[in-house]
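Entry 12.
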Amino acid sequence: MKLKFIFQLAFCTLLFIGCSIDEQEDFLKDSSGIKTSEVELKAKVVNRPFKSKASGNWFFTESTNCNGLLQFSIKGNGKAIHLGIIDVEGVICTIPNEQFYLSGKYIAANGDELYWESVEVFFDEFGLFAGGVFDFVGGTGRFSDATGSFRSNETLIVEELDETTGQPVSGTFSNDGWGTIIY
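Predicted 3D structure (tokens):
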């Protein structure tokens, strides 16, 4: 028993003496790259199908984000794959029949946000926005580096016109979107 204890003590002493502080520091420096690689593997970016369905209201607002163009805001709710139940917020910047830009976000129940902006827009025979192609441009939480795109078909209903200009002032919208999201 005493002999076994002496061998264990001698082994531990040799092990302790054999490892210098410099060697331990070098090992830690070398292994830091391994930890980073493991994190990178866990953060694998995946191309996923995307679908959404939303509805709500749109209304004329004072132009704060549109550099002199007319500004409309949209607010609504719906559902989207990868987000669940969502709130929708957006801004439409336009000169009717000339220029149109739409940007916004989907807000998931857990607070993660997914940002999008229009790339191409389509109008119906009445000159109303009828849909478009949108790019995902990041967000918060798991969507912080999100990319991809989706197409949306819109139904806009004008509920109020400006009495002086005849321009739409407010109404409702509903849409269906489909595409691909990468995050």
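Annotation: The chain is about 20% helix and 55% strand. The chain has a mean pLDDT of 82.
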